[in-house]
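Researcher: I'm preparing a figure for a lab meeting and need a structural model of a single chain. I don't have an experimental structure, so a prediction will have to do for now. The sequence is pasted below. Please return the structure as tokens so I can convert it later.
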Amino acid sequence: MTKYSAFKVFLEGLGGQQGWAPAWRSPQPKKRYDVVIIGGGGHGLATAYYLAKVHGVRNVAVLERGWLGGGNTGRNTTVIRSNYYYPASARLYDFSLKLYEGLSRELNYNVMFSQRGMVMVAHSRHDLEGAQRWVGAMQLNGVDAEMISADEVKRRLPVLDDSPGARYPIWGGFMQKRAGTARHDAVAWGYARAADALGVDIIQNCEVRGFLKNQTGRVTGVQTNLGVIETDKVGMAVAGHSSLMAQLAGFELPVTSYALQAFVSEPLKPVIDTVMLSLATGLYISQSDKGGLVFGGALDHYASYAQRGNSPTIRQVAGALADQMPSLGRVRLARHWAGIVDVVQDSSPILGETPTPGVYINCGWGTGGFKAIPAGGYLLAHHLATGRAHDIAAPFGLNRFFTGALIDEAAASGIAH
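Model: Understood. Here is the structure written out token by token.
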């Protein structure tokens, strides 16, 4: 693998940029692998990378039915944070945030992680009381958070409407300074390049259509449009299509898939230098390096596998932006899209073994999948390689739906995650 550096960029510039090799190979699938990962998004690629890097399991294939990073990894608002309420969630997401903090150096690939901070804005006494409880829980869990005054919110977000009689008055809020954003495709490309350099085969346009099992019901391979691929273990990381893939494997998941829309405006001069989330409307917004406002809101309220949204949600989210930031009300949208998010009843992920022996799963992240990519990959790789759940992942096993040890993160914080 070519070592990326400023000197290498300068050297290639002298040569007309003709010396760059492909970032990863496009191999034909082998007959057999030790592990097959279904899903070539961030979580699948991260799983393959950590299997090879941490555990030395390099006879691995990542099977992607479309193109690498073409699903939810490329269809999100790129926010990274760990401001969760319950101890299990806090450990999980802060572990992911810590991995993100060193990811560019780890992968020798700039994922453009910008720790610009995230401000959660309270618009009522109820919001403020909830924020204080939330911050207290975060601090007890060892995660950085601090309350900020209404004046501090206005200083950090001068585009917010703070006029007398504003529909959403500013009461204060809280901030996580280590939060921020990263470049979504760079995260996928970085993991793909690093995994490929360790011997992992990344096979695009390879759709899994069925599972092969022996007489005891243990998986022995997968059936794809490119033929049968034999394996002892399968890791599934297919986000919104997890319930469909689980059905192919012979078990049910407590997952419902919804469309989550996101929007990008025309480029503007810098107006927002942090990430904001409104506790009243659920609007979240940041500004990209290219100047576009990147924002989103609530889920579309019906189950769907379509990577598009509906008009009522567009009006709701865009209306919330215009109400809270009137100066941006006439800014034009450049594009919008939807990702298919996998929502679990307790708003928390599912990690680990499944009822089908040899099949392991990473799903249920809902709207939090991008921020969890490094942790999701690391923890699933640990289970695949060692046969046991990592301590951080243990509370998120599928068995919690039988024992009743549910987490219900959304109810704790008062908003959907």
